[in-house]
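Quick one - first record:
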Amino acid sequence: MPRLAALSLILAALAGCQTVPPTNVHQPMTVRPSPRPEAGGANGSIYQAAYARPLFEDHKARFVGDTLTVTITESTAASTTSNAKIDRTSTASASVSNVSRLPGKSLLGLGLDASSSNAFEGKGNAGNKNVFTGTMTATVIEVLPNGNLLISGEKQVAIGHEQEFVRVSGVVNPRFVDASNTVPSSKIADARIEYKSAGQIADAEIIGWLARFFLSVLPF
């Protein structure tokens, strides 16, 4: 009985576990700010030189650990159309005239006609359209030597038994960041934007490993 109870608990725990979908965004997806050297001046009870910003300095992200708001405005559309048509016709004829003094008299007067015709016509159409909009905040995980910012972030939203994961990463030129510390996704280099889910609905959309095996080996 103790073994059966332990097995039941393990099965219940496994049933309640949700697998986090894999990701291709830049890692890590968050970092802690690194200590900054004191910019001069002594620390006080309120003033801390390491975290102070000049009075007229903007508040755009520029250091590791700073946050940056990303406006996701991805819209892609693609279509292709192809047509192919091939025609081929050939005709051949031969005859043996009724000429005297030729061997094989049984073939005299024999005629041969042959013809062939091939035709091929193919058409294809394909279209794809994707729209992805939203807003999320990412963290600066590295400052590149030229001043560009490598950002990465993840947002998790749990709705009932389903979990939604929105992830974004890429390289941002600080000049593209506006006064509100926001940058559109269209101005992020090497952008990697994901929207994935985990839960019962997501699991139902995945083919089981045994079914995938048979799909890969069956010829029909």
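second record:
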Amino acid sequence: MKHINVALFVPHKGCPHMCSFCNQKTISGTSSELTQSDIDEAVRIATSKEYDKENSEIAFFGGSFTAIDRKYMIQLLECAYKYVDSGLFKGIRCSTRPDAIDEEMLEILKNYGVTAIELGAQSMDDEVLSMNDRGHTAEDVVKASQLIKKHGFELGLQMMTGLYGSTPEKDIETAERLISLKPETVRIYPTVVLENTRLATLYRSGDYTPETTEEAVENCSVILDMFNNAGIKVIRLGLHSGGNVEEGFVAGAFHPAFRELCESRIYFDKLKKIIDKEKITGKITIYVCPSEISKMTGQKKSNILLLEQMGVQAGVRGDGRLGKYEPRVVRED
């Protein structure tokens, strides 16, 4: 049975800073204030079909949920909690800033059925955070993460690659530091330049060069594999399409199948190491987890074509004994 997440956007509510990259209206496709009737209607639509109640959530995204007006926040929580209390959902998820979490806030969230909190860390480099007007430090991320875990919430962390002032090396260091905080989930977003942001101004002035899609795939595929090896679930990779993202897009790595590109890159890089090490040429069969065959093959058979350029003719088959990102190569001649 399918689980569902009722995603409710609170666009730019509560954010004390305007980050260089942020345009919540463009990302979410809405600028109107979320109401209790909006929550009721979203839940009604989501629950109109059979679903897995024990693994479904109501989620508040878009702004800094714990920094919005306290009375308004509690009104939203009260409305959502009645559906948790009645058994329709396992809990509530919210996203917020690292510097908008303290003991008192966590007690409030727990009382209203919140089970998971995601922090927008974005980077663990203080210089990068400052250059992008984040208004918090890496230490704020550490302290908030520790508090969240101490109080028994599921911890989610969000990071961005290719930010103004960052480098692939700094992005890898951010991933390493996030792994050390032991979150249950992670979201990875390559930076996308949107209209009406400071980043768009920096881009047009030549002061900021965003990652290309290829560069972001190379960077994010390494980071995705790092989190996978650490046993941390990546629940989002790349900015979701929809809202007004396509209309507001200026530059950067935006692709509707970005995660698939990264996963295909992981398989190719692992295969290239095997082929180079064992000096393989000619025909081979590549075995992968059955559900991973399309990722191994790549979009429009891109990985197969790249292997052909290396002098290798490859077929791909499934093997249920293999795990994710675990290719096995068998020579055929």
